[in-house]
């Protein structure tokens, strides 16, 4: 699972489908999440076709999300 850890100990992660059936994903849709150091999880973004990687800028003000594959047409 592609992840990046911030200075506060939180984790940004994605859940790409990786050959899962197009219908019936267990989590409902592919997305980008943030898990705080306390364990609270927040869905940040769910409008990319297949988020597959995350990076933080050095100042941690910008999260870069790398999609893989193509959007369904």
Describe this structure in words.
This protein is an all-beta fold and 73 residues long. Helix content is 0%, strand content 37%. It has no helices and six strands. The protein has strands at 3-5, 11-14, 32-35, 41-45, 51-56, 63-67. It is globular and about 35 Å long. The termini are far apart. The model has no long low-confidence stretch (mean pLDDT 83).
Class from secondary-structure proportions: mainly beta
Major sheet: order of its strands? 1-2-3-4
Output the helix-strand order: EEEEEE
Main sheet attributes: strand count, strand direction, barrel closure: 4 strands, antiparallel
Report low-confidence residues grouped into runs of 5 or more.
none
Tell me the β content. 35-45%
What is the tally of beta strands? 6
What is the straight-line distance between the termini? Answer: 26 Å
In short:
It contains no helices and 6 strands. By secondary structure, the protein is mainly beta.
């Amino acid at each position: 699972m592609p992840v990046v850890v911030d200075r506060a100990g939180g984790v940004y992660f994605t859940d790409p489908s990786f050959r899962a059936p197009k219908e019936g994903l267990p989590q409902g849709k592919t997305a980008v999440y943030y898990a705080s150091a306390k364990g609270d999880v927040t869905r940040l973004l769910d409008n990319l076709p297949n988020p597959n990687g995350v990076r933080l800028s050095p100042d941690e003000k910008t999260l870069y999300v790398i999609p893989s594959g193509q959007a369904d047409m």
